[in-house]
Each structure stands twice: as structure tokens, then as C-alpha cells.
Specification:
Layout lengths: L9 E6 L3 H7 L7 E5 L2 E5 L1 H5 L8 H7 L4 E4 L2 H16 L5 E5 L2 E5 H8 L2 H14 L5 E6 L1 H10 L8 H5 L10 H9 L5 H5 L3 H19 L18 E9 L3 H20 L2 E12 L4 E7 L6 H16 L11 E13 L12 H18 L5 E5 L9 E5 L30 E6 L20 E4 L2 E16 L8 E10 L4 E7 L2 E8 L2
Parallel strand pairs: 2-4, 5-10
Antiparallel strand pairs: 1-6, 1-7, 2-3, 5-6, 8-11, 9-10, 9-11, 12-13, 14-15, 14-19, 15-16, 16-17, 17-18, 18-19
Helix pairs in contact: 1-4, 4-13, 5-6, 12-13, 12-14
Amino acid sequence: MPSRNEQSPRVLVGWVPDWPVVAVLGGEPQRLAAVVERGRIVAATEGARAAGVRRGQKVRSAQALVEGLEVFERDTDAEAAAFEPVADAVGALAAHLEVVRPGLLAVAAAGAARFHGGEDVLAERIVDAVEATGHPCRVGVADGLFAAQLAARAERIVPAGESARFLAAHAVAELGDGRLAGLLLRLGIVTLGQFAALPPASVADRFGTGGTLAHRLARGLEARPVVARPPGTDLAVEERFDQPSTLAEPLVFAARGMAERLHTRLAGAGLACERVEIEVECADGTTASRAWRHEGVLSVGAVAERVRWQLQAWQRRPVFDECAGGVVALRLLPDGLVRDPGRQLSLEDGDQEATARAERAVARVQAILGHTAPATAELAGGRAPGDRVVRTPWGDAHQERRADGPWPGQLPAPSPTHVPERPRPARLLDADGHDVQVTARAEVSGAPVRLVLPAGSAEVAAWAGPWPEQERWWDPEQARRTARMQVVTYDGRALLLAVTAGRWSVEGDYDT
């Protein structure tokens, strides 16, 4: 049981289930629809879930399971804008409101509950306020944000001091760290209660910083203890504009640089923040503000992303109207300060200052070219070479996709060193000058002798394959059969070829 001086603050969480879908459809829970991101389901309607669609499922697997499933690409900016009226409705009842993400908000329960006459009364009024905006709502109250989120799923008010007991029966997967949960399961630790029972020192030795933070959550504590603001230190950053702006884009452009300055100030004080308040000042003196919270500490990219969400949501409201004269100042005020965990570099990590300079350079490029322009790449599962790389905007978390198998038809190692954006047309001929075909039994109609490309032709020195792949066999209209072969020519080129519907193309080349 946590000691009194470590007791987490009471938090009320309001949750609108399946918000990515709700933001797109505005209701219709029985409609067969889902929202996808990078080829995976991130949310689905009640009707789709009843038919078997699950979060994290591949889009084509879900479409195979549910005939007529409507699929919408995720738009986080639209989700944030659609959630603004919900946040306003709750903000009218509780002063200390924080948006965790579109669809999920948190309220400091202690003061609001005293004003409304109890946590149960506050919860009922928040549910009524959200439902008045046309959306269902679930509310939970517990000690700390993590426990309150799980309480909201069950629509429970967990008594003060009982969060650790409430969490004990939940699976370790609820921690949100797949690698840690997998390791704990292999060690026979199935529930949060079993994990919380381990000595903190042993957890720190075995699982490192990430395990320590997760262990605190399992014990009903905040992941990081909040620290007091250093006396006489101004950590807020402000940007004033010579010309009042009635558009969000100029402010979004400035927000990335402001996020960097904010983190520079925090780092100078040895701090990080879990919450940031975004405030705009209009030419007529009026102001508007919204606090955003994060389950972890807010990185530069996370701060800039939340500022973008909020500004674009406000652009649809009177904040940016001509009657207010436009926005003349943007402020970022950090809150929920915690000790900066820092970054433990290994001997292979190189110079830390060089790494920081590189990160700042990428951030400037992102501010100029847009949020999705600079991207990081991560190896993932797939059959075709182009399917095995997941591109993620700089600063965002990678979308998990299993790299292990089975992947029938997957190309064996080594992978091509270059994959063109679009496959280049080609012809593969046998000794009689006929096009080489691949049969349904994955056999070639004749040994490849010559490769014909738009730039010329070359004799085939060696070849390997074919490796067949059959996609969407259950859908006659979209079914596709593909076979791939590796070909080496006498002029020194090594290429990956693919044939679909009798037509060959170059999918990649090997730099030899």
C-alpha cells in the first residue's frame, strides 16, 4: 500500500469510447465501420466489433472477416477539432481540465468534487454534459491517471487509497509496454498485483527505468513523482506577433521552435513536464487556453503536435474570428514538473551534443516542410520489400507491426538495397524468346535467358525462385497472385523481379 506522502492525487477521467470513429461518423454505432492508421485498425464501431473486428488488426484481415466494412483513414487533427465542444462542456463543470488525447480527458477531482457535492455527483454531471453534446461517455475516478483510465472502462469510482487493490487483478498488458508485458508473462507474472508485489530495487535492477515507471503504476502511484517549481524560475515561453493572425498555420509554424525553447529551459533546470497549457491572446485582450496532458513526459514533438491540434480546433471557433482582432501572442506554460530522467548513452552512441544538433536540424526541417515530411523507418513484417518498412513522422511513436512470421511467400535474405517508388516494367525471356511464366504450382515455364529493360537488355547469368504470394484469395474482385525471382545478369546487375498477371517488373535491386 502506498505511503501517505506518496498518495497519488484523485483524478476523474472522462472517456468517449471509439473516438476516432465517432469523430468521423458522429454516431451510428451499429454501422460497420473502422478507422485505420498505417494499415491497422485503431478503432471500430460497436457493430464492427460485434462482427469480430479488433484494434490492431490488419485492414485486409478485417475486411475479409466483415463484408462491406467501411474503412476511413485516421485524421488526428479532425479528431482534436471535433473533441473541442466536449472539452468545453466538461470545462464548464471543472476548472482544472486536461485533455490527454482526443476522446479522453482528465479532471483534478478533489476541488471539483467538493464544489459539486461529491465524486459521484461530479461524475453524473460530467456524463450528462458530454451526452448533451451527442456522445456517450464513461467516467472513472481513482488515485492517479493510470488507475482512473481503467476505472473509466468499468465506470467505477475507486475509493481513495484503494487503487492498488483495484489494479491488482488487471493483466500486465494494461501497462501499454508490449515488450515488458511479454517478458513478465514469460516469468510467470500475469497480473499487475503480482508485478506490484516485487521489491522496487529488484525491479530497477532487472527491468531498468521503464520497468521502474511501470512498477510504480502497478502500485497505484504516478509514474514519476511531481516536483515543485524552482523558486524564481520562469519556464514558460511566449511568442508575440507583429501582425495579428486569424489563421492557425503561422502559429503552428512558430510552435515547433517554441517547443524546443520550452524543453531547453526545462532541461536547464533538470526538469521535464507531463502537462502543458496552450494559451493565445487576441488583439482585443481576450485569451483562450487549454491544458494537454501526456501519460509520459512531453517531448518536443509531442508538445508541437498538441499545439497544432489545439490551434486547428480553435480556428473553427471565435478565437480566430475577425471580431477578436486576431491572435497576437502564443504562450506555452509547463506544468506537472518531474525530474528529467535524462538519457543514458552507451559507448556506441557517440557525441551527445552532435545528436542534439541533429535533432534540432530535423525539427527545423519539419517546421518548414510539414509534420509528416521528415520520417524515421522501422523494419516490420511483410512479404514484398516495400511492405517491410514502416515510415513514421519524426517525433511520433512507431506503429507496432510484428516482424516475425509466418509470412508465406516472404522474400528470403538478403533484401534489396534499393526499392523504387514504382516498379519498373521488364520482360524475362527464355531461350526461345518467349516470356517466362510462373504456373500455379510455382514452376517457371522455361529457364530465364535474357532480361529486357527500357534502357536495354542483358543476358541472365543466374536466377533464384520463384517465391509465390497469393493475396485476398477470398475476394474474386481483388484477389492477386504474384511471384518473385532474383536475377543476376552478366553485366553485374542483381535485380528482384515480380510477375503479376503475366507482366514482369523490377521491384528492387541489389547494390553489388
